[in-house]
Amino acid sequence: MRFRLVTVALLAAVLAACGGSGDSGSGASAAATGFTAPETSSPPVEPPATGAAPWPAPTDPMGLSQKAGLAGEPAESLQYHVHSHLDVFVNGSRVQVPAGIGIDTTNPSVASFPLDGGGTSWGLKAACATPCISPLHTHDPSGIIHTESANAKPHVLGQFFIQWDVALNPQCVGGYCTPSDTISFYVDGKPSIGDPTQIELADGREIAIVIGSPPAIIPSTFDTSAA
Fold first, then answer.
1. Per-residue pLDDT tens for 202-225?
2. Non-local CB neighbours of 16 within 8 Å, separated by 6+ positions
């Protein structure tokens, strides 16, 4: 009888330890992104970048699009077509927002185009046989964020950062976190408070993230003719 009681007690302890480990992992994932995406059946993707800038375009754009709650498409849909702009500064220097975020640049129907002055832009030369572009994406490194969708629901900055695979929440941008680093958010040149992941990517909107010492001028507009 004593042996049976000890065995039951040991089994209960093992089960309790396993359950605790699974719960803590789920909470850490939500805190890292600052944006809660719907459940999907997509394969796991790399955790968001938590290091110093620059942050390159990730290698799993379609998986990250699903993580952000956005369905990849075989071609761009222009029923809902808006452009916003993102500037990121670290100690006064601009961090490049990469070209090709939200685009599967390895797909044979996706082509690269050289830009004047250097750099590359990505676009579709034909419809893809499989989903290759998110309705939220960048074509070039100008910082212009394109929303080209059949659904008129606006997107938010948190979804873009999930696709960029860079951590974003009220305390952190990538590996920069308060209070060690000062972080400020601006919308159309005015300070923005609250959760930055919920900033709407509205048409013509200029969003600036300032980490450390600010630039001489906080941008309030962008050249919409370049979109």
1. 999 999 999 999 999 999 999 988
2. none
